[in-house]
Structures are given as C-alpha cells and as structure tokens.
Amino acid sequence: MNIAILPGDGIGPEIVAEAVRVLDVLELPFNTDSALVGGAAYEAHGHPLPQATLKLAQDADAVLFGAVGDWKFDTLERSLRPEQAILGLRKHLQLFANFRPAICYPQLTHASSLKPELIGGLDILIVRELTGDIYFGQPRGRRESPDGAFKGHPEAFDTMRYSRPEIERIAHVAFQAARKRSKRVTSVDKANVLETFQFWRDVMTEVHAEYPDIELDHMYVDNAAMQLVKAPKKFDVLVTGNMFGDILSDEAAMLTGSIGMLPSASLNSENRGLYEPSHGSAPDIAGKNIANPLATILSLAMMLRFSLNQAEAALRVEAAVVKVLEAGLRTADIWSEGTQRVGTREMGSAVVAALKAA
Ligand code: IPM
Ligand code: MG
C-alpha cells in the first residue's frame, strides 16, 4: 500500500514530520512518497496543486496532509492560492465525507476555555459534506481581475447549491456512523432562510426513513453554534453542509481544549481518503517548534483505521497519545499550570517513545 505525504505550508512540514516518525516506528509494510502542495508547490512549480502531486495522491491508498496557506499569497488570483490545492484534492478524489471527531481527553478538561463540567467526557462527531455547497457552486459568477483585486467591481457572488445525490450520500454516511455510536443525528441547516437548506432538510428526512433505529433532529445553524458552547454533550453525530461544517468544526475544536487536538478524515465512497489536522497552516508560529503535532498524529491513526485496515495500529497510536498526555506533556496551546511545556519535536518523540514502550 502507498501513502502520499503532502506536508504543505506553515507548520505543515513540522507536524507531518512527527506523524511520519510515528508511522515509521510502527514498521508496517507501507511505501511513502512525498510531494509539495499549496504555497510551497506554487513557489517551486507555479501551481498549488501540480499535476505530479495530484497524480501521487490519486495513485495512493491514502494521503497524509499537513496544511496549506500563507498570507503572502493573499494577493494571488484565486485559482493560484494555496487553498485551491486542498479544495482541488477534495474534488478530484471525490472526498465528500469529512469526519471531524471532537473528543475532550480527560487530561485536557482544563485546557479549554469552557467550564470543565460542560466538556468533561465530550465525544461528538461532526460529519461535514466536503465537495458541494457554496464552496463549489457553479458558475462562480465572479470575474478574476488580473491583480486579484476587486477595485471598481460592482459586485461579487458565490452560488450555494446541493444536488439530491450529494445530500443523500452524506445522509447515509451520518446515519451509518450513528449506528456505531449513540444512534442520534442532528442535521444542521438554515432551512428558515435558504432554499438549498430546506432541500437539505427534506432529503435528510427522506433518507432517515431507511434508518428507523436512528433518532434524527434538525437544528438551525445559528442555534447549533449556540448549543455547541451551551451544552455540547447533547450532540452525538452532527451532520451539515460544507460551509456550516467548516465553521462549526472550528468551534467544536475549542471544546476539546485546542484546535491543535482535532484530527480529520475525508473519505470517498471506497473509503480511500485524505487525513489532515482540522487546524490550518498557522504561518505565525511556523518554524518555531511550538505547534501541536497531536492532531496530525491522531489523523494518522484515523488513516490506519479507515483506509489501511490497521485498526490495531490505530489503537496503539491513540493509546500512545493518551499516555503522553497522562505524563503531563503539553505543547503551548494545551499547556496549563502544573504541566510540562514541550515543543513539536519533543511531543513527537514522546509519542514515539510511548509506542516503543507499549
Ligand atoms: C478546513 C479549512 C479549509 C476549508 C480551507 C483551508 C480551504 O478551513 O479544512 O476547514 O475551508 O475547508
Ligand atoms: Mg476550516
């Protein structure tokens, strides 16, 4: 089996390097091959998603992805910006199902900005639709000016759309995920204002008829944003569109203590997938050895489980992460009084050591 390693920009290379060390120590029979992506690929090859990078990802059984983006590319025309690389990969590989589990590790209950009793024991799963919605609305309806600026333009717009099959397949994914958990799904929409999301609600309800064992409720996105900080444990599986899922998953990440803890899996219908931390490239802290590599290491665990049929190795990695947290090791983002602050590299080394010791 082949794993494509795409570190990307900002803190991407540092955190992916730690996940690769963890992968190496598992001594599994996988080949790895890496390529540039995002701003790094633009600088070297003039495009954020060069053909060779796309091909490597397409031919791989799984992709381990860091992050893309840097403010220095903000003035490029949109089609050349680093973000187009991840959007292009999602689209080309048809990675429509994005899993973003938000789990609050008991050791981190005090690292969150929320009260410990609100988040202690939290374990929710956000299922975000990833290849439709306003992110991929056609036509884009917006003219790209050569210098990337909108000076003098009278308007700009994006189109929000979903097709029935797109909603149906993500609905099935959410209901099936709920079957393995507490059998409850909350579908988040904005049906009170948007046609696209009234359609979403209707199709969700139709598909739900095939899952009589699962409880479905619908919630407007503004209310969901509030409920997530008011009583997050009331949720179990939360399914929503691309845009709302982007926003709510960042919010949910903070319930776990830090966005540096939130892994993700983006899967196609054959469970081939791309695995990336839910956080971004954080160029402001790049190269300083302070980024938290755990979201990437936990994304690697998801990869082992979902795409590489290595559930046991996944459990070993997750147990090693718990062990270093129990030992009191913390990167800056999850540090609190009485714990030991470590850097990116040290955190990776600790996970590797825990794996070797197990
Ligand atoms: C994410 C990111 C991406 C998104 C960006 C980098 C395009 O915020 O994965 O959540 O908006 O989907
Ligand atoms: Mg996001």
Please characterize this protein's 3D structure.
It is a single chain. With 358 residues, this protein is α/β, with parallel strands linked by helices. The protein folds into two domains: 1-96 and 268-358, Isopropylmalate Dehydrogenase (3-Layer(aba) Sandwich); 97-262, 3-Layer(aba) Sandwich (Isopropylmalate Dehydrogenase). 40% of the residues lie in helices and 17% in strands. The protein contains twelve helices and twelve strands. Strands 2-1-3-10-9-4-5-8-6-7 form a ten-stranded mixed sheet, with helices on both faces. A two-stranded parallel sheet has the order 11-12. Strand 1, helix 1 (12-26) and strand 2 form a beta-alpha-beta unit. Helix 11 packs across helix 12 (344-357). The longest helix is centred in the middle third of the chain and has 16 residues, at 164-179. The two termini are 25 Å apart. The model has no long low-confidence stretch (mean pLDDT 94). It binds 3-isopropylmalic acid and magnesium ion. 3-isopropylmalic acid binds next to helix 4.
